[in-house]
What we know:
single chain; 215 residues; alpha/beta; 8 helices; binds D-xylitol-5-phosphate; binds zinc ion
Amino acid sequence: MKYPKIAPSLLAADFARLAVEIDKVSAGGADFLHLDVMDGHFVPNISFGLPVIESVRKVTKMELDTHLMLTDPVPFISAFKKAGSDSLTIHAELSDPSAVIAAIRSHGLKCGLAVNPDTPVVALFPHLEQLDLALIMSVEPGFGGQAFQPHTLNKVRELAAEIARRGLDLPIQIDGGVNVDNAAKCRSAGAQLLVAGSAVFRSPDPARAIAVLRG
Ligand code: DX5
Ligand code: ZN
């Protein structure tokens, strides 16, 4: 696969005009669509869920990169698959991430694992061989539009070194506060999948924003 890839986060879109918003970023060169699902428990916010994903699936062929900020994702895996998600990313802060990763893979979906800004990157290490992407959160999950936390770039570097040491083909995703001013730093630290909500959907020129994020 050719990197970097850009995944606009739908959380920053105008929810009353989703099809138009999705067309805008798709025509602008987005590679994936990042869908932030929140349960009001794992994070102190609620976003959108299955019916929205089902509708989004009908209006785009883009890969649906689904970021699950849920305390208990397992009972919903088959429903996300049915709704049209291509990959499910869960959090290393859950009580038993291995079991959730295995359940996601057993459904034939791609699986990602995320760490919050204050979770040590080594929390990802026992799972790397089972993953399709590893996500370093660069803000506390729960809300779009927050400021990028620069210290998380050290975690990207550390993870990139570990992936190289093991000879794995595992892309690193970064999510939260990514914009046209810090994207180059993200890429040079080793992030290959850049998620950006506000920087794309709130830009007067999303195609240009996507191009600059890509570098
Ligand atoms: C935060 C989400 C992010 C966020 C990105 O919980 O995981 O995907 O919406 O939005 P921006 O780019 O605005 O920080
Ligand atoms: Zn996200």
